[in-house]
Design brief:
240 residues, binds magnesium ion, binds adenosine-5'-diphosphate, five-stranded parallel beta sheet, 50% helix, alpha/beta, globular, Rossmann fold, 2 domains
Length: 240
Amino acid sequence: MSVSLVADQNRENVVKRVLIKFNTSILIMPNAQSLKRWKKWGKKGIFICVEGLDGCGKTTQTKLLVRRLRKKGYNVIGTAEPSRGEIGNFIKKYCLHGMKRVSSVVEALLFAADRFEHVEKEVIPALDEGKLVISDRYVYSSLAYQGAGGLDLKWIERINEHAMRPDLAIFIDVEPSIVIQRLKPRKSVMENLETQRKVREVYMKFVENGELVKVNGNKSKGEVADDILRVVLRFLAKAN
Ligand SMILES: Nc1ncnc2c1ncn2[C@@H]1O[C@H](COP(=O)(O)OP(=O)(O)O)[C@@H](O)[C@H]1O
Ligand SMILES: [Mg+2]
């Protein structure tokens, strides 16, 4: 009997195959679920994003979710887009808090560039350590905001194709008129009732096709947090 280890380099990971030769060859693979995940994303951790209109409670809920999952013993980190990198900081100044809204094409390209840096520098390293990563906004924000700005969703997807799809994407649904009230003191150039309505429409397309899981955000912060935790724990139970 001879045993040989064959290292098979895919993009980010080395998948070890144990080849046992005993008269005939038997190939022992990792269990089906982990192989599916590795193949799909080339990573070991789990990536979740929280999406929704400005003021729907993403930042509040991402922090609560990180805290609650940590209490349950998960190795979890919270992150956000625009990222804290140079492109992210530029976006905050130039696109979100500039004098007026820049063109949707410029927004889409800048957000896609920032997203790829965010994925490369923050998300993938954490996933490679087996962490659960929760991002406050991700690719659906580009689809919703720049899609609502009139751009073709297929093109937005295309320029974001190097950013991996999340394992779970949560949409906190709040009435556009309510978020406008919540945001009064800190409105950015992207926030008015008509824009928010259009943005919600795009998000809802992804809820309808099953890519986003909708959570009712018109409840108290604690109740919304309970609902999100339930969705995440159900997902994690299935993924493991
Ligand atoms: N469920 C809620 N009910 C009422 N107010 C909320 C709720 N969730 C968040 N808020 C408040 O709304 C504002 C926007 O919340 P935030 O988490 O910053 O939203 P986002 O990150 O989606 O823009 C904050 O003042 C926050 O305290
Ligand atoms: Mg926020």
